[in-house]
Amino acid sequence: SPANAVGSADLVYLPPLIPSDDEQLSLPPKVDMLHVGGREKRPGWTIVDLDASSSDLASSVVDVVAAMDDLSTINDSSVAAVYASHVLEHGSYALPRAPSPGEEKADNHAASSRRETRVARMGLFGGGEVAAALAEWRRVLIPGGLLFVAVPDLPTLLRLYLASAFEERVFLMRIIYGGQMDEYDYHRTGFEIGLLEQLLRASDFCLISQVDGPFGLFSDTSSMELFGSRISLNVVAAACDNSNNDGSSRSNVVTDLPEHVKLQAMA
Prior knowledge:
37% of the residues are buried. By secondary structure, the chain is α/β, with parallel strands linked by helices. Strand 3, helix 1 and strand 4 form a beta-alpha-beta unit. It contains seven helices and eleven strands. It is globular.
């Protein structure tokens, strides 16, 4: 299946993530790539996670301790790629995140102002952690930088749930709502391609493409299958380039990413 097939009668087919000759950008030197919620070290990737103390593994691999919706220690337009597999669903869709114990919001007034702007543009979905996280990922990405985002595919999970026996339904219920083994292990938002695509567009992402299969960049739940069905909704998007003088956006894609990242994005 093509990378841009969304499989929904309610959406037009999205443009493929392949730039034309006049849509090329070069990366500034030494730009970073962020792995939000990651546990697997890879060259060139900086791991960001709010929970860096729950295990010896987490404390040894997390480079930046931060929430997915507050990357204030990372500069604007400084990141070539953001990878987030099965973390976005942990965010709320309506209410903002309450600060963790010991965590302080650096600028509550500025944060409230940004939230009001998102609510005015996106309605109910502009107020929660999901929209705030997408806004932060867009902020740190350079124009044309790539977002790899994977979330549980709610329609697939519901179909499997209704077709399963009791024991299997309990297992699927825990996937839908989170394992709930600690304070972070809760799912607060359910996604299907239409909702995710609209939220990405409202967050200034272009060239939004559903990937038919795993990303292949890390060993994680983006490749998970249950009862013969893929249960992960995997999407690649590019940060829109808003540098046009007329205020319009261009759908550019960077071309100097590491080869294995670029190949996955343009498969």
